[in-house]
UniProtKB/TrEMBL annotation:
Residues 184-369 form the Peptidase M16 C-terminal domain. The keyword Iron does not apply. Its main location: mitochondrion. It catalyses: Release of N-terminal transit peptides from precursor proteins imported into the mitochondrion, typically with Arg in position P2. Belongs to the peptidase M16 family. It comes from Timema douglasi. This is Mitochondrial-processing peptidase subunit beta. It is an enzyme of class 3 (hydrolase). Pfam families: Peptidase_M16 (PF00675), Peptidase_M16_C (PF05193).
């Protein structure tokens, strides 16, 4: 560290070490309670459940998301109106979302209302009424949501990317499920999914902000201590590995104004030691949008090329992780006849990562990655989400100073090594929607994943 920055660097290191610790307790039934008490006036508490669309099959695909919708439609203790009034009167926010590997229910409230919020959350996941009338009404809501998703082309492209990259496996299915399933899922399908997957060892009660850990543990024992660990039906099998297949899917539509393209290779899972260097490599490629300043003076080579020659309207590099696999790649939006030019620049940048990336670039990417990670933890809800997700993925919360040290230890050689391992001469998965006639044939894309040079 240069002399003029030494005092700042010391203060930064101390700030990382002085964040409130994450307390962890496991109840007798296997449910984990994890929290970070920052003494704030507000708090976020939530239930992170190790169950998402990856745990479904072809017949019940969409059931996890359907359950999330049914959660706020009333329980055996309170009707939907009572539930909504209770939350509104507290001035709290109740929300939920479903991903491919996790289902989450959380509440944001004043710290004094945490006991009430936990009681409501535990009631929702244990005693949801799942009434036939509400199920029928919610089918229409989900079908409308599917129509909305169809208009978000980024989501459409990423769903296609998963369906081709993980074809024939559970990660290839969408979270919302196919229309025929939404129309045919029954109350029994919902009950079967809950009894198979909502088990206490697979649930984490996470809290952040003005939360007292001992109080959380007491509340968890009181409201969630009755969650069972035994199975009434057949015990669900362990997750089978999801095979990655280099392949492509193109939905050509020349009436659309812009082409939307995603290209990805198989990345690393959450717990893989290559994950941090891959995140640094991902940050090196970066993200760019036409509306940003900087243009040709951008540090990212790809941003400079895109700005100077108008190759794309926007692009973003991504590193999506799952338990045992991941997708590392790039998504871009461009004019109809710019697909080939943009692809050439993307693959040239990838080859540069594999061969000639410099220490100065990697140092910049490390700093940017650290900044982005700390900015993402700004507020009680992101911290609560970070705790819940890390408990399910790593079975612990990685302290900020450890994460910073792991990022800081990544050198240019490490980036070149992981890029050689995951990118160089690997079969990519490609998904493209819109006027994509100009996108080269898959064999040409594959043949640009390596260099023949003397």
């Amino acid at each position: 560290v240069p002399k003029r920055f030494q005092s700042t660097a010391t203060a930064y290191k101390q700030a990382l070490i002085n964040v409130p610790p994450t307390s962890l307790t496991q109840l007798d039934n296997g449910l984990r309670v994890a929290s970070e008490d920052s003494g704030a006036a507000t708090a976020t508490v939530g239930l992170w459940i190790d169950a998402g669309s990856r745990y479904e099959n072809d017949d019940n695909n969409g059931v996890a998301h359907f359950l999330e919708h049914m959660a706020f439609k009333g329980t055996s203790k309170r009707s939907q109106t009572d539930l909504e009034l209770e939350v509104e009167n507290m001035g709290a926010h109740l929300n939920a979302y479903t991903s491919r590997e996790q289902t989450v229910f959380y509440a944001k409230c004043l710290s004094k209302d945490v006991p009430k919020a936990i009681e409501i959350l535990s009631d929702i996941i244990q005693n949801s009424k799942l009434g036939e009338v509400e199920i029928e009404r919610e089918r229409g809501v989900i079908l409308r949501e599917m129509q909305e998703v169809e208009t978000n082309l980024q989501e459409v492209v990423f769903d296609h990317l998963h369906s081709t990259a993980y074809q024939g496996t559970s990660l290839g299915r969408t979270i919302l499920g196919p229309t025929k399933n939404i129309k045919s899922l029954t109350r029994q399908d919902l009950l079967d999914y809950v009894s198979s997957h909502y088990k206490s060892p697979r649930i984490v009660l996470s809290g952040a902000g003005g939360v007292n850990h001992e109080e959380l543990v007491k509340l968890a024992g009181q409201h969630l201590g009755g969650l069972s660990t035994s199975y009434e039906q057949e015990i669900p099998s362990l997750l089978s590995p999801c095979r990655f297949t280099g392949s492509e899917i193109r939905v050509r539509d020349d009436s659309m104004p812009l082409a939307h393209v995603a290209v990805a290779v198989e990345g690393a899972g959450w717990t893989d030691s290559d994950n941090i260097p891959l995140m640094v490599a991902n940050t090196l490629v970066g993200a760019w949008d036409r509306s940003q300043g900087g243009g040709v003076n951008n540090a990212s080579h790809l941003s400079a090329a895109a700005a100077e020659s108008n190759f794309a309207h926007s692009f973003q590099s991504f590193n999506t992780c799952y338990k045992d696999t991941g997708l590392w790649g790039i998504y871009w939006v461009c004019d109809p006849l710019m697909c080939e030019e943009m692809l050439f620049n993307v693959q040239s940048e990838w080859m540069r990562l594999c061969t000639t990336v410099t220490e100065a670039e990697v140092a910049r990417a490390r700093n940017l990655l650290k900044t982005n990670m700390l900015l993402q933890l700004d507020g009680t809800t992101p911290v609560c989400e970070d705790i819940g997700r890390q408990m399910l993925c790593y079975n612990r919360r990685i302290p900020l100073h450890e994460l910073e040290a792991r990022i800081e230890s990544v050198s240019a050689k490490d980036v070149r090594d992981v890029a050689m391992k995951y990118i160089y001469d690997r079969c990519p998965a490609v998904a493209a929607v819109g006027p994509v006639e100009n996108l080269p044939d898959y064999n040409r894309i594959r043949s640009s994943m390596y260099w023949l040079r003397l």
